[in-house]
Design brief:
- The chain is α+β, with helices and mostly antiparallel strands and about 100 residues long.
- Helix content is about 20%, strand content about 35%.
- The longest helix is centred in the last third of the chain and has 19 residues, at about 80-95.
- It starts with a strand and ends with a helix.
- About 5% of the residues are buried.
- The model has no long low-confidence stretch (mean pLDDT about 85).
- It binds zinc ion (ZN).
């Protein structure tokens, strides 16, 4: 079975392998094109701005709080399974030291 986690070398740190996912935004108007950043920003408040995007197909423009495409990391295991993995890892580590 593939080992989906790796023990980090530092103190109580614990690493879980992730896969990277590039998230694209489909155009709300034509639902065919993908929204790409124009490089322009729109000030929406004293400390907030939105990023202007343009559809690759119909040219529709839309502004979002984030820039697309965006990179996300999805862990192979999450939530309770990740906690369980961490506990087992620490247990094994402690028993090796004795
Ligand atoms: Zn479009």
């Amino acid at each position: 079975m593939e080992r989906k986690f790796f023990p980090a070398t530092n103190g109580v740190e614990f690493g879980i392998a992730c896969r990277a996912v590039m998230v694209h935004r489909i155009c709300d108007k034509c639902e065919k094109g993908v929204m790409g950043p124009t490089g322009q920003t729109i000030q929406t408040g004293p400390q907030s701005m939105r990023m202007l995007h343009k559809c690759s197909e119909c040219g529709h423009s839309e502004s979002y709080d984030v820039q697309y495409p965006k990179l996300e990391f999805v862990p192979h295991v999450q939530g309770a399974a990740a906690l369980d993995m961490m506990r087992r890892h620490r247990k094994n580590k402690n028993s090796q030291q004795k």
